Amino acid sequence: MAGTGKAHLRRPEEVLLRVEDLVVEYPAPGRKVVHAVSGISFDVKAGETLGLVGESGCGKTTTGKALLQLLSVTSGSVVLDGTDLTGLSPRDMRRARTDLQMIFQDPISSLNPRRKIGDIVAEPLQVWGPHSEVEQVRMVDEMLEAVGMDPVQARGRRPHEFSGGQCQRISIARSLVLGPRLLICDEPVSALDMSVQAQILNLLGDLKADYDLTLVFIAHDLAVIKNVSDRVAVMYLGKLCEVAGADDLYDHPAHPYTGVLLNANPEPDPEAPLDLEIREAGELPSPIDPPSGCRFRTRCPYATEKCAAEEPMMRKVGDDHFVACHYPTL
Amino acid sequence: MPAENASTPGTGPVAVSAGSPLLRVDDLHTSFHVAAGEVRAVRGVSLTLDRGRTLGIVGESGSGKTVLARSIMRLNIGGNVSTSGNVEFEGRDLLDLPLKAMKNLWGTELAMVFQDPMTSLNPVVRVGRQLTEHVRSNLGAGRGEARQMAIDLLREVRIPDAEARLRAFPHELSGGMRQRICIAIALACEPALLFADEPTTALDVTVQHQILNLLGREQRDREMAMILVTHDLGVVAGRTDDTIVMYAGKVVEQAPTRVLFTEMRHPYSEALLRSIPRIGQRSHTRLSAITGRPPDPIDIPPGCPFSPRCPYVQQKCREEPPPLVAAGDGAGGASHLSACWYPVGTDAGRDAFARNLADRLPQTVVVAEGSEFAESAAANAAAEATAANGSFEGGGA
To answer: For chain B, what is the domain count?
Structure first.
């Protein structure tokens, strides 16, 4: 990724969310700067699911939080349905967040342990919703039911009485109760058991259809990403490597990094060919001092001098298939 | 490295006949006594493992896989733990061994790599000392000799710039590096049996791949036996000789890994495999989720523990716990065991499924809706159900 560029963006009027040149930097000790996200651009159409995949430290969670303006964006724009969120006052941003919700990785710690489930799900309504309490209770019950919980049983209980999968259902209910248009899911299933993970993924698929949701789904698991996404963006060290339709990306990976990720994914198939070679510990370079040119070049088998000197730009290699690489494998 | 020289002075004579397994576990039970009652984490597990072989133990959280590994190594310490059964390792009964003798086995004969490389190293001690301390106390090596061994080990686990790394503190290293250090420590005294308890769960997929390859290569080169505990069927596939699937403290299926994946007999193994999203599937493939969740280990239902979630469940399953018996005449032969009254892939199983589908049992319907299944078994089952119960299906259409 290693690269920047906007060739993969669609026309602004076609999309619900358009992120351009997003940069998020944090100060580090010694007057250094952590380049968490370095100029990425992507867009999501209404009703589409964009999968954002990459290793830990690649900036995918930072990107998710930046969409919601939960952290301060260094530069760039996040345009939701014509409104640039980065320019909003805190007051207007609060209002805008009713359209934009997030669910987090750890379902248990994202619920207040001292509050009852009914109150947790009702809180967004108490801030923005209809003011009649009867109406609020009805909406909470409806939402709990939609995520597969029994509202009568759940309403009066507290988070510790529920399993991780159930807590994730409650988080989803809370995030959807205001009827948002865009839901950002940050590793929503990585803390769950395999059998529960499938339940939550199916639930998200159902809710997306029922509530006309647009999803940005952040995960490190390639198979999970493929299952939920219409379009997938691969991230590496604060940059985008490759953007393509979900099936196309996995069938024809064009970026060497996508290939590395796919090759490392453990398939539950004993006949699958196993590459047993052990490489020197290929570590993610520090985001404080990222490599010049293509950021993936230090781990890339195809890297040449050109990769160090020149940053690859996003370019089209197929129908709705874009890659930022000087030597794409396609 | 020869595993045969494994006998350690001070732990008694080792009389191992050529044919006897390295490890034999017989009817192992482990319980924890807590305020709410007795948590029965492991409920009668038996297994054998030969020298140089690899065994995968697969299960969800709470299935008892970690407690099983720790019980074998006698790492479950505390006043509220009770363990019964037999653990025979190289002819010695580990459960009867005094703790002091057990201590001599840790590291030299049995070693473990834990899940969380962040917390399994001492944060205030340099990596070098954590490696050499172990080598020195267990093998009685001198300072210089131990240091050289440590450097060799770090090189072996592919840590670049090994000499410099000896002076590093754990926090200066990445998660993958730390797990390599943990593996180096575990391998230092050439154990005959290595437990790897979810060694890669906390790591990124690319790092996981490297660590698993490293473990596989070390296991092969040292002719060391390895037990790989994981929740991920993808990790055991292709990396272990045999696999055990655990559920609610019991072994529900056991087979050579290849056989397990091709001829699954237990509905839980099947359900677990089917609920995993695969890269080979098209996007938006509907997953066959397992409904419900595992039983409360304090209050395990009578009968088969999986029965409340099982798409094949019949009345018998709710009443009588199925024994772990030979799974039939498949390729696995006598080494393929399964604990189910209505096994997958048999006529009894197909009939049970068809009956449940006709009765619209929720967990069965969910499975039948799973696309991959719809193409194969469910199509047959549904066809059979239609034939057997035409009026119902006709009415529902």
So the answer is: 2
Note the pTM of the prediction, 2 decimals: 0.85
Output the domain CATH number for residue B86: 3.40.50.300
Interface confidence (ipTM) of the complex: 0.84
CA dihedral B307, B312, B315, B320 (to 10 degrees): -50
Q: Which residues of B touch A261 (CB under 8 A)?
A: 205-206
Tokens 């690319």 belong to residue = B206
Could you tell me which of B278, B158, B131, B283 has the C-alpha nearest to residue B214?
B158
In which band, very low, low, confident or very high, does the pLDDT at B376 lie, cut at 50, 70 and 90? very low
Closest residue to A266, CB basis, from B159, B232, B285:
B232
Q: Which secondary structure element, helix H or strand E, spans residue B301, and what is its range?
A: none
Outline where B240-323 has alpha helix (H). 257-262, 267-275, 315-319
The label of the residue with tokens 């999501």 reads: A44
What's the domain range around B373? 265-278+304-396
Report how far apart the first and last C-alpha atoms of chain A are (Å, whole number).
15
For A162, name the nearest residue in chain B, comparing CA atoms only: B293
- Does one domain contain both B236 and B330? no
- Phi/psi at A106 (nearest 5 deg)? -95, 105
Residue A282 pLDDT level (bands cut at 50, 70, 90): low
CATH of A1-81+181-194+210-330, one of 3.20.20.150, 3.90.226.10, 1.10.10.10, 3.40.50.300: 3.40.50.300
Spatial strand order of the sheet with B250-256 comes to B110-113, B193-197, B225-230, B54-58, B242-247, B250-256, B337-338, B325-326
From CA A148, how far away is CA A151, in angstroms rounded? 9
For residue B283 the two structure tokens come to: 């996007």
Test A193 with B286 for CB contact under 8 angstroms. no
What DSSP string runs through A185-212? EESTTTTS-HHHHHHHHHHHHHHHHHTT
The pLDDT tens digits for B49-67 are 999 999 999 998 889 999 9
Question: Could you tell me if A168 and A202 are in contact, meaning their C-beta atoms sit under 8 angstroms apart?
Answer: no
A150 touches chain B (CB under 8 A): no
- For residues A7 and A116, which has the higher predicted lDDT (pLDDT)? A116
DSSP for residue B188: T
Amino acid A218 reads I
Pairing mode, strands A15-28 and A75-80:
antiparallel
Which of A196, A221, A227 is closest, CB to CB, to B284? A227
Any idea where the domains of chain A sit in the sequence? 1-81+181-194+210-330
**Residue A239, φ and ψ in degrees, nearest 5:** -130, 165
Residue B168 lies in a domain: yes
Q: Inter-chain contact B279–A250, Cβ cutoff 8 Å?
A: yes
Residue A88 near residue A69 (C-beta atoms within 8 A): yes
Closest-CA residue of B relative to A257 is: B206
Three-state secondary structure call for residue A235: strand
β-partners of residue B25 are B47, B87
Q: What are the DSSP E strand ranges found in A29-148?
A: 32-45, 49-53, 75-80, 83-84, 100-103
